[in-house]
Structures are given as C-alpha cells and as structure tokens.
C-alpha cells in the first residue's frame, strides 16, 4: 500500500465550519430549552432577537466590506447570537439585546476582519458592552419559575454569597433551580452539551479541564484555609456562568491558543481570574472578564509558544 | 490666499485629532459632556494662539539648542494662566476638568504647532495657523462630546434631546465609550475623504 | 562659550518673565479661588447642619487631609458639628460631609463632596433618594448596611447594584464619627 502523507498545513474541507457550528448549537439546545422552561416564553424572545440581530448585522457588514454574503449562513453569527442570549438576564429589555448582538458582530468580529480574525470572543464583547452600558438591567435578576411563582427580583447564587453570605444548595445549582442569566441556570445540561462536544472532538479537552480544574484547585485552597469565609469548590464550579464559559466560550477555536502549552496557560489563567474576581473582586461574577483577559494574550502565546519544526531555530 | 489656507487647513485636511491623531488625552478624557468639551476647547485655543504668537515673535532670538525648553516655558505660562483663571471664575468647570487643564502643557498639538509652524513662520501666519488648529480641535471635541453626551445621558449641553423612552448607554460616558466613539468618527472621517477623492 | 552663555541668558530671561507674569496674575485669581472655597464650605455647612450664615459662626476644630471637624456655634452654644471624611470607594476616593447633633445622638444630613463612582451605579450615592435617608440615623459609629428599606436608625439601606459604594460611604461615616467623638472628648478634658 502506498500512503502519501503531506506535511502541514493540512487543508480542511470547506463544509467544516458550518458543520462544527451546527454541532455546537446542537450541544447548546438542552440548556436553551431549559431556559425557556425556567423563565418562560420571554427567554425565547431574548434568544430570537439576539440571533436575528446577529445574523442581520453579519449580512450587512459582509455586504459593506464587499465580501461573500453567503458566509453569514456559516452558523458562526447564529452561534454568537445564541451564546450572547444565554449570558443575558431574562428580564432584559429586547432593544438592549439587539444592541449587544450588533456590537458583538460589528465591533468584535467584522471590524477585526470577520470570522477567524477576531481577538476577543464576540458574544462576550457584546455582553461586556451591555454590562457597561446598562449596568442596572444587566444585574437585575428575576426569580425563576421553578423557584418562585411571582416575578420578584432576587440575588444570583454568587451575588447571594458575595453580599449576604448565603450558599445555594448544590442540587439547585445542578438542576438550574436558581436565578441567573438564561444559560447559567442548569449546570447539568451545560455539562451534557460540553461532554457531547468533547466526545465528538470539536473542542480541545485541555480547555475545560484547565479552567474547571484550576477553579477547583484555587478555590479549594481558599476553602481549606478558611471554610467559613470562602465558598466550597463545588459551589464555585456549579454557580454562575462558569460551565457555559468553560465549555462553550473559552473553547472558541478562533480566540484560544493553538499549542498545548499555550492552552494550559490560557485555561489555568481563566480559572485563576475567575476565582480572583469572584472572591476578592467587586463583582460577584467574573467569567466573562476572565475569558476576555486571557483572549488578549492568545496572539502573544501563538507567537512564542507554537510548536517548532524539528531543527527550526528561534 | 496663502494665509487663508493656513487658517482652514486645520479644520479638515490636517485636523489635529482625526488626521494627526494628536491631543488624545483631552479628546478621550474630557468629552463625556459638551460643557466640559467647551471648557477644554477654550483653554486649548487660548494656550495655542497665545503661545504661537509669542513663539513666532521670539523665534529669531531663541538659540536652537534651547528652543524646546523655551517653548515649554511659554506654553506652561499660558496653561497656568488658563488654569488659575478657570479656578477663579469657573470653579465647577475647573473641578470637572480636574488635572486635564494642567496637562495641556504636554498636549502634542501645542508643542507640535510651535515646533512645526510658529518657530518657522511670521506672526500673522502663526496666529492664523493656531486659530485654525484650535477650530479643528474644537470640531473634533464637539463631535466626540455631542455623540457621547447624547448617547450616554440623552442630553446635549444639559438639555434633554432624547425622550424619556431612551435608556442612556452609560458606557458612552465611561472611558471605554470614548475609544468606541473616536474609532467610529475616524472611520467616518476617512470614508468621507475617500469618497471625495474617488 | 559665548553660545552657552546666550542659551542661559535667553532661558533665564523667559523663565523670570514667566514667573513675573504668573505672580502678577496670581494676585487677583488667588483671592477669588479662596473666596470660592470659603463659599463652598459655608454652603456645605449650611446644607448639612442647617447653619444660618448670618447669625451662626463656625470654628475649625481639626483640619487634616482626610478629616475635618467644624463646630457650628449659635451665640455661645454649640449648635452642631460638621464632619468631613474621606475613604476609598469603588473607583477612587469618596469625600463627604455630614452634620451631627452636638450630643452625637443623630446625623442631621449628609452630602457627597467628591466621588468618581460608576455613573448609574455607584454614582447614585449623590442622588437625593439615597441621601435623604441619612437624616436621623444614629451617629454612634456602628451603623449597619441592609438591603431593604429601613426606618431603623441603626441601619442604612444600600443602593441595589452598588453595594461597594454604599459600604464605602457607610465606612467613612462610621470611621469619621468615631474620630470626631474622640477628638471632642479629648478637647473637653
């Protein structure tokens, strides 16, 4: 048998981007469905507005940049819209959702050169913009339907811990029986989607392992040092947007490093900042900023930590 | 005719903010409201015109080796006068502008014009150049602060321009908003230039 | 040699000229600046202690960088104390002034002098809705922060979403009350 092995770079089939995107979206569907179950039809509206705005912005900007507009259908804008929606509080005004989705696509993605050229995760940039633009609606959380019937505002598990020192039960965090943004309620369903992607090898196992592992280790050290003051590592892993961030946002192939060494630094860095912000920072949650901070180091890591060819000099 | 050109070039063609990207510190820092921007424009125009006038008058007496030091002394004199004047007569504005008035000393537009123009040209041309550059700076700051105040507070010069339906984008009056607006304005500026050339 | 002498001469000439002009300029701005500061202080004292600037006088008990204490005197009687305190907020220093009854039973009013908190969140410590609740709170140095509206004189309600700024204001008040009490006690001995 005569096998011919070419050296890298290997060329991929053109259908690979839409295919990967489709599977990531599929993996997110259980969590998305759960958010509709927990927060009602309003959650569906948030997702629809976010996805529609993302797609329209993508199409218009490809047109403006005189690029092939069929790229708007590769699923990446759809995914950005869905991810952004999952990071938003269910009570948010729909016009704000549209602004966030437009910022995500236009400023964070198209202005950097479109798919594959962005430095920061677009959905997180959209969320960061909304957080800075509308701080009050972005931190107003309604109780979820399973927990309370009336729509009063409540604290998220992390907010509750930070400001009132109330720990939420692990079971509630796992099943999603808590207040929070659309996609940060059920840790179990996100885990399910993440494992699906892992099994199909669409994401690098090192990233979720590095992020979740380092959060567990760093918060574990604090917890062992003073278990009255610091929350236990299981709570830290299950609460807030960590599951969504670790499995679906930090793993974005465009904004994560290429080399294994880079990936370890990147994912442990995210975990470190998550613990730092949650425990010592002014805000209850820090997954978004942690990923954005480490995103900014990725070009540097790709430059200095790439695997060198045999015999290549520095 | 030539003098007229010196006057208008700073408005658009050689706009200190959008084309030369100078004076970024006040452009980004004090444009969160139109009122602050007007105060800053006034202070910069006073310092720029005053020091351009003095520098072009003394340009032949100053030895080349100490020219920058001399220019800085002249500029610092005008800046200190502007700062003290604001503190005495407009205490609220002076408080709002904070350290950015003393920082005009290191504003590159001013030292740049002394070095590039006033130290080489006559008094009339230098003053016209300084006036033109001040207007260019003013145009840029007014645009920046108008966009930021309208989007960030729903007001313009303290007057409500957007109805109560509008939810202000608070990010626009934060430092991050300054970078967004500056980027979009430079984009628009370059697009217009391109369209007129092409 | 001649060149360097000329350099020194020119630079010295302009430096001296500049100094002269600024000195002359300062003579008439400084007076105004001082007047502005005084007017501001009296306006603040008036709004937090209800001092009547026509009949009442004030005396500086202590003036530090991060702490000031004024005694408001009506006739021969101490009408109130005004305390200026400073501490770290979310972004930068918060500086505030509040008036207390002479026996330190309760706070008369509180006003923020300087803050650079986040607009829309922490900056709401300047809003009337938040500030008016301070009237009548106990000036005992151990006020507590709560999340819900409260009539209790030992509790202060936080601004939702701005717990850090609210805590900072509370800490500054508690700390300054303690310091003022100590100073007055020492002066009374």
How would you explain this protein's 3D organization?
The complex is a heterotrimer of chains A (about 325), B (about 200) and C (about 190). By secondary structure, chain A is mostly helical. Chain A is about 60% helix and about 0% strand. Chain A has helices spanning about 15-40, 40-65, 75-85, 95-110, 120-135, 155-165, 170-175, 185-200, 205-225, 235-240, 240-250, 260-280, 285-295, 300-305; strands spanning about 140, 155. A two-stranded antiparallel sheet of chain A has the order 1-2. The model of chain A has no long low-confidence stretch (mean pLDDT about 85). A two-stranded antiparallel sheet of chain B has the order 1-2. In chain C, the strands form two sheets. In chain C, strands 1-2-3-4-5 form a five-stranded antiparallel sheet, with helices on both faces. In chain C, strand 3 (about 75-90) and strand 4 form a beta hairpin. The longest helix of chain C is centred in the first third of the chain and has 48 residues, at about 1-50. The interface of B and C includes residues 63, 65 and 69 of B.
Write the layout of secondary structure elements.
The complex is a heterotrimer of chains A (314), B (198) and C (189).
Chain A lengths: L15 H24 L1 H24 L11 H11 L7 H16 L12 H12 L7 E2 L10 E2 L2 H8 L5 H6 L11 H13 L6 H20 L7 H6 L3 H8 L10 H21 L6 H9 L2 H7 L10
Helix pairs in contact in A: 1-2, 1-3, 1-8, 2-3, 2-4, 3-4, 3-5, 4-5, 5-13, 8-11, 9-11, 9-12, 12-13
Chain B lengths: L1 H7 L15 H6 L4 H25 L8 H23 L1 H7 L10 H11 L4 H31 L1 E2 L2 E2 L14 H23 L1
Antiparallel strand pairs in B: 1-2
Helix pairs in contact in B: 1-7, 3-4, 3-5, 3-6, 3-7, 4-5, 4-6, 6-7, 7-8
Chain C lengths: L1 H48 L6 E8 L3 E8 L2 E12 L4 E8 L6 E8 L13 H4 L12 E3 L8 E3 L5 H26 L1
Parallel strand pairs in C: 6-7
Antiparallel strand pairs in C: 1-2, 2-3, 3-4, 4-5
């Amino acid at each position: 048998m005569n096998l011919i092995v070419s050296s890298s770079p290997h060329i991929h089939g053109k259908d690979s981007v839409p295919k990967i995107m489709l599977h990531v979206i599929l993996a997110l569907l259980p969590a998305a469905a759960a958010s509709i179950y927990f927060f009602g039809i309003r959650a569906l509206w948030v997702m629809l507005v976010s996805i529609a705005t993302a797609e329209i912005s993508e199409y218009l900007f490809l047109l403006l940049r005189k690029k092939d507009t069929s790229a708007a259908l590769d699923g990446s804008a759809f995914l950005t819209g869905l991810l952004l929606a999952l990071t938003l509080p269910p009570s948010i005004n729909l016009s704000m959702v549209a602004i966030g989705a437009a910022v995500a696509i236009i400023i964070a993605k198209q202005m950097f050169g479109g798919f594959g050229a962005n430095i920061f995760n677009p959905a997180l940039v959209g969320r960061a913009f909304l957080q800075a633009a509308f701080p009050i609606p972005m931190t107003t959380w309604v109780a979820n339907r399973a927990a309370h019937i009336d729509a009063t505002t409540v604290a998220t598990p992390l907010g509750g811990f930070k400001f009132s020192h109330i720990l939420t039960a692990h079971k509630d965090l796992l099943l999603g029986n808590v207040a929070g943004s659309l996609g940060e309620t059920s840790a179990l369903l996100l885990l399910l989607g993440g494992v699906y992607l892992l099994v199909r090898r669409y994401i690098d196992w090192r990233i979720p392992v590095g992020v979740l592992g380092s959060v567990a280790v760093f918060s574990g050290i604090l917890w062992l040092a003073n278990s009255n003051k610091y929350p236990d590592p299981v709570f830290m892993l299950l609460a807030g947007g960590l599951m969504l961030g670790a499995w679906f946002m930090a793993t974005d192939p465009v904004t994560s490093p290429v080399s294994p060494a880079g990936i370890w630094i990147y994912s442990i860095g995210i975990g470190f900042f998550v613990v730092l912000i949650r425990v010592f920072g002014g805000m209850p949650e820090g997954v978004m900023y942690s990923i954005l901070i480490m995103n900014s180091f990725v070009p540097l890591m790709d430059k200095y930590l790439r695997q060198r060819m045999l015999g290549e000099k520095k | 005719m030539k003098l007229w050109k010196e006057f208008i070039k700073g408005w658009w063609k050689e706009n200190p903010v959008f084309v030369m990207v100078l004076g970024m510190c006040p452009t980004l820092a004090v444009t969160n409201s139109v009122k602050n921007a007007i105060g800053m424009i006034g202070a910069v125009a006073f310092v720029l015109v005053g020091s351009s006038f003095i520098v072009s008058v003394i340009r032949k007496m100053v030895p080349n080796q100490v020219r920058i030091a001399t220019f800085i002394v002249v500029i610092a004199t005008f800046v200190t006068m502007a700062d003290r004047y604001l503190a005495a007569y407009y205490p609220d504005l002076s408080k709002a502008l904070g350290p950015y008035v003393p920082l005009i000393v290191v504003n590159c537009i001013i030292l740049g014009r002394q070095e590039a123009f006033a130290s080489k040209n006559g008094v009339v041309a230098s003053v016209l150049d300084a006036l033109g550059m001040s207007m260019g700076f003013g145009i840029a700051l007014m645009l920046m602060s108008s966009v930021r105040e309208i989007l960030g507070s729903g007001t313009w010069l303290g007057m409500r321009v957007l109805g109560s339906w509008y939810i202000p984008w608070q990010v626009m009056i934060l430092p991050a908003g300054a970078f967004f607006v500056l980027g979009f304005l430079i984009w628009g500026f370059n697009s217009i230039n391109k369209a007129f050339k092409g | 040699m001649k060149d360097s002498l000329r350099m020194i001469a020119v630079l010295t000439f302009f430096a001296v000229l500049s100094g002269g002009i600024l000195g002359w300029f300062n003579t008439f701005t400084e007076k105004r600046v001082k007047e502005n500061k005084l007017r501001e202080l009296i306006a603040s004292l008036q709004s937090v202690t209800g001092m009547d600037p026509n009949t009442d006088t004030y005396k500086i008990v202590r003036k530090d960088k991060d702490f000031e204490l004024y005694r408001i005197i009506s006739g021969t009687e101490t009408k109130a104390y005004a305390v200026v305190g400073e501490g770290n907020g979310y972004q930068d220093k918060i500086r505030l002034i509040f008036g207390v009854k002479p026996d330190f039973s309760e706070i008369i009013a509180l006003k923020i002098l300087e803050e650079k908190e986040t607009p829309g969140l922490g900056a709401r410590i300047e809003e009337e809705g938040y500030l008016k609740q301070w009237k009548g709170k106990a000036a005992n140095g151990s006020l507590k922060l709560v999340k819900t509206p409260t009539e209790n004189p030992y509790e202060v309600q936080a601004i939702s979403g701005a717990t850090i700024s609210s805590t900072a204001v509370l800490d500054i008040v508690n700390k300054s009350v303690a310091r003022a009490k100590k100073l007055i006690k020492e002066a009374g001995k």
